[in-house]
Amino acid sequence: MIVFRNVSISYPLPGGQRRPVFENLSFEIQRGEHVYLIGPTGSGKTTLMRLIYMDLLPESGYCQVGDYRSDRIKPAEIPYLRRTLGVVFQDFQLLPDRNVYENVAFALYVTGKRGAEVKTRVLQALTLVGLSHKRRRYPHELSGGEQQRVVIARAIVNDPWILLADEPTGNLDPRVADEIMELLLNLHRQGMTLLMATHDYRLVKKYPARTLAILNGQLVEVDPRTL
C-alpha cells in the first residue's frame, strides 16, 4: 500500500522564493491496484513518483510505501525500499555499451546478486517481455518499443510489488504504445501494483482504470470516460 498524508513539497526559485508543488496532499493506493496519474506538464507527476521511491522527501507530512515511512526511514534503508519498486522511464536510460542481457542483469548486480540466480531471473524477465531472443543485441540495434521492453524487464527483474511507469509510451507511436500497455496490464494481472503517469488520454480511455488528476497541487479522482 502507498499512503500520502498531508504531504507538502516545493522547489526553490532563482529569487529565493519557493514554488509549491503539493500542499497537504493525501491519498492511498491499495496493493494490486492499477492507477493512472494525469495532469499538465509541470503539475508534479514526476515529483510524486520521486516521493514514492524517496528520491525526494516531503517538507511536511509523510509518504508510506509498504513498511517504509519517509519521516522515519534511514538513508541506509532507502536502497531496500527501492528493491520493492520497479521504475519505467520515458527516455529508457539504458546503458549503451551493454547488451540487453547486461542491461537487465545490472539491476541485480547492484543488489549483490551473482551467478546462476542472475541468469535465471534475467531470462525470465526477458521472456515475460518477449525479448529473450534479442538478449545479445545492444540498445542502438533495437526499436523504440523494444528498448522500452528492456526497460520494463529491468524494472521487474527484482520482482517488485509496485511498478511506477513515468510516461512509458510518450516516445512511441500508437501501435507500439498499445503493445507496451498490454504488457504492463499483463504484469498487473499477475498481481503487480501499477501506477502510470501519462499524457496519453487515448490509452486511459481504451484501458480504463482508477484515474487521479493533479490539479493545483491536489489529487482529484476523475472518470476516465470523460477525458
From TrEMBL:
<comment type="function">
    <text>Part of the ABC transporter FtsEX involved in cellular division. Important for assembly or stability of the septal ring.</text>
</comment>
<protein>
    <recommendedName>
        <fullName>Cell division ATP-binding protein FtsE</fullName>
    </recommendedName>
</protein>
<dbReference type="GO" id="GO:0022857">
    <property type="term" value="F:transmembrane transporter activity"/>
</dbReference>
<keyword id="KW-0547">Nucleotide-binding</keyword>
<dbReference type="InterPro" id="IPR003593">
    <property type="entry name" value="AAA+_ATPase"/>
</dbReference>
<dbReference type="GO" id="GO:0005886">
    <property type="term" value="C:plasma membrane"/>
</dbReference>
<dbReference type="InterPro" id="IPR017871">
    <property type="entry name" value="ABC_transporter-like_CS"/>
</dbReference>
<dbReference type="InterPro" id="IPR027417">
    <property type="entry name" value="P-loop_NTPase"/>
</dbReference>
<comment type="similarity">
    <text>Belongs to the ABC transporter superfamily.</text>
</comment>
<dbReference type="GO" id="GO:0016887">
    <property type="term" value="F:ATP hydrolysis activity"/>
</dbReference>
<dbReference type="GO" id="GO:0005524">
    <property type="term" value="F:ATP binding"/>
</dbReference>
<dbReference type="InterPro" id="IPR015854">
    <property type="entry name" value="ABC_transpr_LolD-like"/>
</dbReference>
<dbReference type="Pfam" id="PF00005">
    <property type="entry name" value="ABC_tran"/>
</dbReference>
<dbReference type="InterPro" id="IPR003439">
    <property type="entry name" value="ABC_transporter-like_ATP-bd"/>
</dbReference>
<keyword id="KW-0067">ATP-binding</keyword>
<feature type="domain" description="ABC transporter">
    <location>
        <begin position="2"/>
        <end position="227"/>
    </location>
</feature>
